[in-house]
Specification:
Keywords: ATP-binding, Cell membrane, Disulfide bond, Glycoprotein, Kinase, Leucine-rich repeat, Membrane, Nucleotide-binding, Receptor, Repeat, Serine/threonine-protein kinase, Signal, Transferase, Transmembrane, Transmembrane helix. This protein has 820 residues and is of the alpha/beta class. The chain is built from 20 helices and 43 strands. The strands form 11 sheets. It has a 12-stranded mixed sheet with strand order 2-3-5-7-9-11-13-15-17-19-21-23, with no helix packed on it. Bound molecules: adenosine-5'-triphosphate and 2-acetamido-2-deoxy-beta-D-glucopyranose (10 copies).
């Protein structure tokens, strides 16, 4: 009885307290001109049915979508009471006045207010917007100047931040360590100043557009070399200086625009070699050295620089090259670029004196405030007599190679901050090291030619101390390992401990895990720990002492042979080296008798197949479209990585939903590399026995056994179809209707291609709204492209990633040519 009473009380209380959004919606309706179609300015009772408005089951507004409605007027502050709001789109209107505070709209995910005429933004604007993913305030040039504040760190889920042409001033705050999901940062056409913050090294950012600042950002762009996921970098029209950094870790980089800055130095080879590069704009800088030679399909412009020669294919003069090496050690100071023109270092170059045969005989860098190090390349200037480096801020040591300069008369390094031993120069050299350089160790041999007994004694004592120290360190290191004191005690650390206790470690560097460890962590392969059964064998769950969870795949070696896994160890050795955010890591292996065990990282949410086809039985909620799109993107990224591995390309050959594993955040990783074969460099395809799963096999692969990366693209297309329709690649329940209906790829391509039909085949669990439907259609088109009968017509995985990325991340559609 009491229980019932409480329930009734609850219900009453609940309905009485239910908040209604009609007051705020009425204010909004009255503030907008013209009143949007079907909206009422008098009676807000029906606001859930107004155009562009969507409510949840309790009539609370969750979406307001009023893009391109030619609206003027203002936004009332009451909008901040719409506490269930998730999506607010007011892009491309003429709204003006102050933006109201949206602070604490904790459910807001998407906020498009770009291309309007707002006049100010409140200082607490980003406060409490903890779910904000997509934010666009671009093209609001009427805003009063404002600053990017560190409260943006509260929006820890930001993916897309666009505030181009929004009248921002001040510096870019050092906040990016708190924004791990950020992929796109657009701040072009503002008045930002200062340097690039160190936390940009957050490796997630792919699109970084900071071009056209009124005064200009300054400093070096060194931080970019650790931004490994960069795709597009626009920094033109700023005051950036120093050399172009090493981009060798940024293999996705496609567009790099650096024009109209003060970049100096030689264009690095690492940039020229990038394989995905499509456009490089370097014009109007202070770049030096030879003209870079990009591949012909790269759009490149490097006019308006200080290259030594006009033509590509021509190297620089040897003394010019040497002086550029010297400049490199000093971080390529700007002063060297303008005052060192042409390809003859003896033609009016400042700081340099030559003899009548155009040999450099003196270099005077005294009192220039240079920082950096003393280059060993000075040794290539064989006629050098005088070298003045005094009164700078040079660090590190005096290179030994300088002693080879036979003509050297004066070397002045006084008033720097040099360290290390002074090399032994000939008696004719006047070496000036003091004042300054307090850390430079004088070398007695340079003043006395005889070696004194005390020096020998000193040396001996030094060596003894050094060895003692070394022994101590080694000892300490070992003890630390034994005790497992390493704070990042991960799986590997644990196995290393075991290995130290005498277990076998493979000489190729991958980790062999003792069978005893596997027995222990799986509770002796207890049935209760079975995660699933696959074509290769049973997969068990295990947990190491430090709590790390693993998945152990147990196979009979005979099964491996029949499945074509020869050279097991060699294969595993390669696979353990492959690490990517969207690939299931192979952590190690073990062979015990005729059984083999592969140990993978544990994926807590199981496989995509379970979530697509068995969610009801397993009591999961069905995947929504956003999750499916993200999973598709993750898979594409993982496979793209496999296809583009620097040294060798890998083909998965057995992509399917049961090989796609999910983490707690529902992000996906591609697993089961059991069938991966690496493609030798330079070979287009290789013929092997067909392996794979019916329903996902590309026709040319099934017919001829020819494997190319396009085999994976085909399978990926089928997976997209499965995610759209919720139907399996081979649906035996359709058998009686004919084989075409059973084979998803055929049915999808030949029956559903017309859009109207696809809409009927969409997975019922999705129940998409209008916007979602549009992206589903786009993905359906992609699925069709991926499954073209002719491999050449299928896009490559890089292209697939490019198409999916905006769809998965709720990007705004960028109008053609609107790149700023
Ligand atoms: N890393 C993992 N984390 C969690 N569960 C896993 C993991 N790997 C596999 N599983 C579970 O074990 C099951 C069997 O996996 P397995 O890879 O052996 O087979 P499969 O992919 O279904 O088929 P095949 O071996 O023919 O490719 C999976 O369906 C999944 O439920
Ligand atoms: C508002 O409109 C609803 C129907 O949409 C109607 O039932 C209600 O009486 C109206 N209220 C007023 C105050 O006009
Ligand atoms: C947009 O609104 C203005 C008035 O604010 C009007 O003059 C103009 O015709 C409208 N344009 C369109 C395309 O509706
Ligand atoms: C947002 O929430 C914080 C903490 O709950 C509170 O201090 C602040 O006043 C709120 N801001 C607004 C505008 O409601
Ligand atoms: C840009 O910002 C600086 C301050 O950093 C200010 O002095 C200057 O007037 C601004 N320029 C423009 C064009 O807004
Ligand atoms: C290269 O850039 C300069 C200035 O930015 C421009 O004048 C020139 O036309 C460009 N050249 C090519 C080939 O695009
Ligand atoms: C300078 O000498 C070093 C070796 O001492 C050599 O590697 C380098 O290529 C030389 N540079 C030029 C321009 O000859
Ligand atoms: C030599 O260089 C200086 C500046 O570095 C310049 O002013 C001068 O015109 C140059 N002379 C010749 C002959 O090029
Ligand atoms: C070096 O720095 C000092 C102090 O900042 C400055 O006065 C001097 O002009 C600078 N020298 C050169 C050559 O830039
Ligand atoms: C060297 O650097 C220090 C600190 O960076 C600075 O205080 C000093 O003025 C610099 N000295 C010269 C000669 O540039
Ligand atoms: C010289 O270098 C040391 C460390 O290498 C540094 O602590 C010191 O500040 C430097 N001195 C100057 C004047 O730059």
């Amino acid at each position: 009885m009491a229980w019932k009473a409480i329930n009734i009380f609850f219900l009453l209380f609940y309905s009485a307290a239910a908040i209604d959004d009609s007051a705020a919606m009425l204010k909004l309706a009255n503030a907008l001109h013209p009143t949007p179609l079907s909206w009422s300015t008098k009676n807000a009772t029906g606001y859930c049915r107004w155009d562009g408005v969507q409510c949840d089951n309790n009539d609370r507004v969750i979406i307001i979508y009023l893009d391109r409605k030619n609206l003027s007027g203002t936004l009332p502050f009451e909008i901040s009471t719409l506490t269930k709001l998730e999506h607010l789109s007011l892009q491309h209107n003429k709204l003006s006045g102050s933006l109201p505070s949206l602070a604490n709209l904790t459910l807001l995910r998407v906020l498009f207010i770009g291309d309007n005429k707002f006049t100010s933004i409140p200082h607490d604007f980003f406060e409490g917007l903890v779910r904000l993913q997509t934010f666009d305030i671009s093209f609001n040039a009427d805003l009063a100047p404002w600053f990017l504040s560190s409260t943006i760190t509260q929006c820890g889920r930001l993916v897309y931040f666009d505030a181009g042409s929004a009248n921002i001033m001040g510096t870019i705050p050092d906040i990016f360590a708190s924004l791990p999901s950020l992929r796109s940062l657009y701040l072009s056409d503002n008045n930002l100043t200062g340097t690039l913050p160190a936390s940009l090294a957050n490796p997630g950012i792919e699109f970084l557009h900071l071009n056209n600042q009124k005064i200009g950002l300054s400093g070096t762009i060194h931080v970019l070399s650790s931004m490994t996921r960069l795709r597009s970098v626009f920094l033109q029209n700023n005051q950036f200086a120093g050399p172009i950094p090493d981009f060798s870790k940024c293999q996705n980089l496609a567009k790099l625009k650096l024009s109209d800055n003060l970049f100096t130095g030689i264009v690095p080879t690492s940039l020229v070699l990038l394989t995905n590069l499509k456009a490089v704009i370097l014009s109007n800088n202070k770049l030096q050295g030879p003209v870079p030679e990009f591949r012909t399909n790269v759009q490149a412009n490097f006019s308006g620089n200080n290259f030594c020669v006009k033509d590509a294919h021509v190297g620089c003069d040897q003394q010019v090259t040497t002086m550029l090496e010297v400049a490199s050690a000093l971080g390529y100071p700007l002063t060297f670029s303008d005052s060192w023109q042409g390809n003859n270092a003896c033609k009016n170059w400042s700081y340099i004196t030559c003899n009548e045969h155009d040999w450099i005989i003196a270099v005077n860098f005294g009192k220039q405030n240079f920082t950096g190090t003393l280059s060993s390349s000075f040794a290539n200037l064989t006629r050098l007599r005088n070298l003045y480096l005094n009164d700078n801020n040079l660090t590190a040591s005096i290179p030994e190679s300088l002693t080879k300069l036979t003509q050297l008369e004066v070397l002045d390094v006084s008033n720097n901050n040099l360290t290390g031993k002074i090399p032994v120069f000939g008696a004719s050299v006047k070496l000036i090291t003091t004042p300054g350089n307090s850390l430079l160790e004088s070398n007695h041999a340079s003043t006395e030619n005889k070696v004194s007994p005390s020096l020998i004694a000193g040396l001996l004592v030094g060596i003894v101390i050094f060895i003692a120290l070394l022994l101590f360190l080694i000892f300490k290191f070992r003890v630390n390992k034994r005790l497992g004191r390493s704070r990042s005690a991960n799986v590997h650390a644990e196995w290393i401990v075991h290995n130290e206790a005498g277990y076998h470690t493979s000489n190729i560097g991958n980790v062999v895990i003792p069978i005893e460890v596997l027995q222990q962590v799986t509770d002796n392969f207890n049935e209760n720990n079975i995660l699933g059964v696959g074509g290769f064998g049973v997969v068990y769950k295990g947990e190491l002492h430090d709590g790390t969870k693993i998945a152990v795949k147990r196979m009979e070696t005979t099964a491996m042979v029949t499945k074509g896994m020869n050279g097991f160890e060699a294969e595993v050795a390669v696979l353990t080296k492959i690490r990517h955010r969207h690939l299931v890591s192979l952590l190690g292996y073990c062979i015990n008798g005729d059984e083999a065990f592969l140990v993978y990282e544990y994926m807590p949410q199981g496989t995509l197949a379970e979530h697509l086809f068995e969610w009801r039985e397993r009591g999961y909620s069905s995947l929504n479209w956003k999750q499916r799109a993200t999973i598709a993107l993750n898979v594409a990224q993982g496979v793209e990585y496999l296809h583009n591995l620097a040294q060798q390309s890998f083909i998965h050959r057995d992509l399917k939903p049961s090989n796609i594993l999910l983490g707690d955040d529902m992000r996906a990783k591609v697993g089961d590399f059991g069938l991966v074969r690496n493609v030798p460099v330079g070979k287009y395809s290789l013929e092997t026995r067909v392996a794979g799963t019916f329903g996902y096999l590309a026709p040319e692969y099934a017919a001829t056994g020819r494997v190319t990366t396009k085999v994976d693209v085909y399978a990926f297309g089928v997976i997209l179809m499965e995610m759209i329709t919720g139907r399996k690649a081979l649906d035996h329940t359709m058998e009686d209707k004919g084989w075409m209906f059973m084979h998803l790829a055929t049915w999808f391509r030949e029956d559903l291609i017309c859009r109207k039909k696809i809409s009927k085949a969409i997975d019922e669990a999705l129940n998409p709204d209008k916007d979602t439907l549009a992206t589903i259609y786009r993905v359906a088109e992609l699925a069709v492209q991926c499954t073209c009968p002719e491999p050449r017509q299928r896009p490559d995985m890089g292209m697939v990633v490019n198409i999916l990325a905006p769809l998965a991340q709720e990007w705004k559609p960028v109008a053609a040519g609107q790149e700023y």
